[in-house]
Amino acid sequence: MQETDPAVIRAAMAGDLAAFEQVVRQHQQSVWRFLRRLLGDAATAEDVTQETFLRVHRRLPTYRFRSSFTAWVFQIARNAGIDELRARARRDRLPRALATASGGTSTSTGRTGEARVEIDAALATLPVDLREALLLVEVLGLRYTEAASVLSVPVGTVKSRVFTARLRLAAWARAGEDEGGGVDARDAAARAGRAARRRGEAGDEV
Q: Residues 128-160, buried b or exposed e (16+ Cβ, 10 A)?
């Protein structure tokens, strides 16, 4: 993932609105993708993405260029997403993300069909700590060190969470094949998992 030009960041810090809009354009889609998978709902992800960049704007003066700017932005996005999950839990103890995925009511399913519903359902079965680690490394392509910075945990913890998430998704895919339902989508998920493992093995050297 390409890093933002430090000169653009400094200009945004100084109050240059055009520079900040450039920051938003560069990171907005990736932040939304992460939050959509984390929260399980496209519309909610849009709202939390907006909240993320409001927080980024407020906190820009605190960025010290000591770490990846991308990781810094995703740390803010992750915290905003966790805040939303906590608020959701207070509103309704039954996880709405699971209900949305299993019900297949996402507005994007018309574009991608049952495969996306199956993948969303698979991700929804993971605990949040495993889901967010997998999304950062496998979906967004962050290095383990960057993901560790986002999550404020050691690199080894990120590697362990991603590995555990892969195992659980593989078990989910096998269970679907045994039941005889959604085999094509689950096969696709399994293939993606194998590719992710290969990418992860290469990432171990980073």
A: eebbbbbbbbbbbebbbebbbbbbeeebebbbe
Residue with tokens 């960025």: 63
Report the mean per-residue pLDDT for the chain. Answer: 78
**Can you tell me the mean pLDDT for 142-159?**
92
Q: How far is CA 84 from CA 11, 35, 53, 90, in A?
A: 30, 10, 15, 10
CA distances from 144 to 47, 53, 135, 175 (A): 27, 24, 12, 29
The encoded tokens of residue 160 equal 């362990």
- Enter the pTM of the model: 0.61
Which amino acid type is present at position 24? V
Which of 6, 4, 3 lies closest to 14 in space, CA to CA?
A: 6
* Residues 6 or more apart whose Cβ sits within 8 Å of residue 193: 166, 169, 170, 173
Residue recorded with tokens 């574009």: 111
CB-neighbour burial class of residue 92 (10 A; exposed 0-12, middle 13-18, buried 19+): exposed
| Tokens, residue 199 | 């990418």
